[in-house]
Each structure stands twice: as structure tokens, then as C-alpha cells.
What we know:
Number of strands: 18
CATH superfamily of the largest domain: Zn peptidases
Number of helices: 12
Distance between the termini: 8 Å
Bound molecules: glyoxylic acid, manganese (II) ion
CATH topology of the largest domain: Aminopeptidase
Number of domains: 2
Radius of gyration: 23 Å
Amino acid sequence: MSNTNTAKITVNGDRLWQSLMELAEIGAYNDEGTGLRGVNRPVLTDADVASRRRVIAWMEQVGLAVRIDRMGNIYGRREGADSTAAPVLTGSHIDSVATAGAFDGCLGVLGGIEVVRTLNEHGITTRRPIEVGIFTEEEGGRFGTDMLGSAVAASRLTLEYAHALTDRDGLTLGGELARTGFDGTVEARLAPPHAYVECHIEQGPVLAENDVAVGVVTGVQGISWQEITIHGRAAHAGTTPTHLRADAGLAAARIIVHLRALVDSGDYGELRATVGHLVVHPDLTNIVPAHAELTVDLRNPDDTQMARAEEALAAFLHDLEDSQPGLSLTCRQMAKTTYVPFDEGVQKVIAQAADDHGLKHISLLSGAGHDAQEIAALCPTAMIFVRGEYDGISHSPREYSTPQACRQGVDVLATTLLRLADQD
Length: 424
Ligand code: GLV
Ligand code: MN
Ligand code: MN
């Protein structure tokens, strides 16, 4: 990857902040747990549709030519001097978990648009086109598979698989794309860009602990999501002797405790395990639960250790089923990605850009999943992380990065994109 351009540009931090705050009003709600205003904008809900329309309007205002593909992924293109050259792509997502803050994903999309505004103001024509992408269902919170739009763009998952996924009300993603008018006509498989760079909040404490503004992301750890359904037997809470119960709720609790024991054993590397969704049926005080449904989210930077942890969980589930007559379990893999290393050449361009902006930086692995890990299959890719406050808490209305931190990250994005877009 040759790189001769040493130019540097800085963006308008106030304008970037204003757009972040304005977008956060779409899907805003008052969060009872924190007493803060949060964002609830799962993919293809009315709020997500409104936010897509708002961002498309901003894209058009800065002169981007917008296209929508069959996954509902949105791309805005700024022409380069050589319109036949592969573009440099940036972007992220604007769908959110149901209890989000203003920054997750939005910083990368609005940061990309702010870079384009800045290039326009400076009258800069890059050699390569620059495109800003918005990927559908990055969060996986509604249709159960994360990084879905970018995974289809990168051909890891098929369009048919994605369109057939259902939400908890049985609505399909394909149907929701059609209902909302985001069933674009452009082929969803993306032609390989020259490079992809995504700016995102860190969503963790590492940058703050190291007292640096910016992170150069070396890769993303593996993610495994499963849905476990436990079938037991409903029975009267007062009259049913303990030995006659097939208690689905108890089995769910045992799974949660066992996962924690796997983590605490230290035998599975840097495993993280979370049961974030758990429901019991019929969900009544005086009835032994007949069914339970839970999700398991495993993360591991080491694919071998991840496989061992998955095997250990499967063995435990098998034993659990055998431990109580009348109890049975079914598992469904919802999402699975391996460790993805990022391109060293792009990391170097990012690190140099941070140096040139006078920003201290460190390299770190991403704990969260990102669209970048999918696009990395198509072209040299890396990410810029922006520091978060309050231990980098995220997926919560407490998520917060300062206006200065956001601007600094997008300054690095701007200079990185400018340099990559002038490469041969
Ligand atoms: C994406 O937000 C993830 O769950 O890592
Ligand atoms: Mn995100
Ligand atoms: Mn997220």
C-alpha cells in the first residue's frame, strides 16, 4: 500500500456534535433505570426509518450520490478524479440496541459525512472516490444476527438467509425492508473497495486507562451467539413435590451459573459470557416454568479457546438434559464470527494521522463486533476508536464521549481517508 500524500485536514467539531445530538432525538426515550435520555432505534422500526431518511438527506446535502442495496445498506458516493478507481469506504451503522446512547455506530456514519463536508469546503478532489456506508442490522437486536448487512455485502451470509430472518413478532427482515421502502435494487454484494476505515467509540475502558485520545484497532475478537430453548413441565408451585418437577427456570439458572464458572476457571483464555435475554413461560408466580428461552453471548479473541468453551457448554447442556426426566433442550446458533485481524498498512496510516494531529494513541483489539470485521474480507481494513467516559460504558444511555474526543477521532478519520483516497 503506497502512500505519498502527507496532507492533513481537520473537521468542524461543533457541526459533528450537532448532527450527533440531532440524530439522537430520533428514537429518544426517557430511561427509567438511569434517569437519562436514551436512544431506542432497532433496525427498520419507525425510528430507524426516520433516522435513515434524515441521514440520507444529510448525505444529499453534502453532494453524495446515494444508492440503496437489496439489504437496505445505504451508500453515499463522492466522486474522485478517477471515477473508475475503487473507492475508499468509511461508515458504520445507525440502528441501535433498545437502550442505547447517541454514539454507537452514529459517530462513524456522521463522522464520514462530516469528512465529506470538510473536503467540499476545502475544494479537495481526491484521486479515488470516497463512499460513506450505513449497514443494516449491525446490532442484531431485532433479527438475531449481528453485522447482518455488512456480512451480506461481504458475501459471508446470503441475501436469502438475511431476508428470511424473523423478529420476535414473526416479521421477516425481507418483509420489513419492503414495508419501509428500504428494499433497494442495487446488488447487495459489494465490489471490493480500495480500503475501509471505520471510526467508532471504544465501548470499553482501555483508552481512558491509558490516558490516550485515540485507539488504532488491530482486529475484532470472535463472537458466538446461541439461543437455547428449555422445555420442562408446568406444574402447581404448592403441590408438586420437588422430585417430580421438570423446572425450565431452574435449568436456565444453572446454565447462567455454569457459564460464569467457565469464565472464572480461566481455562478458556479471555472468554466472556453473557446471558442477556431470559424469559420463562408461563411467567406466573405459582407455576413451575414449563419453558425457558435464553441467549448466550460468548466472546473470545482466540478461536481455539472459543471452540473449547462452546464444547464445554454443549457438554453441560447434555448433562443438564439427562439430569431431570421431562427436561429437554434445543439450541440454535444465531451468529458466529471468528477473530478478525485488521490490515497493518491501514493501521499505520491511522497511527500516522493521529501523530500528525498531535494525538496520543495506542493499539488495541476490539471487544465489540463491528461492520469493519465483515468488510475486512473485501479489502484492507482497520478502525479508529474514540475514548468514552464512565469506563467506556456502552449499550446504555450512560454511553458518552466528549465533543472533543469525537472531533479528534473524526480528524484522524478525515486525514486517513484523504491519504488512502490519494493512493494508487
Ligand atoms: C455489537 O454491538 C456487539 O454486540 O458487539
Ligand atoms: Mn456499533
Ligand atoms: Mn452496539
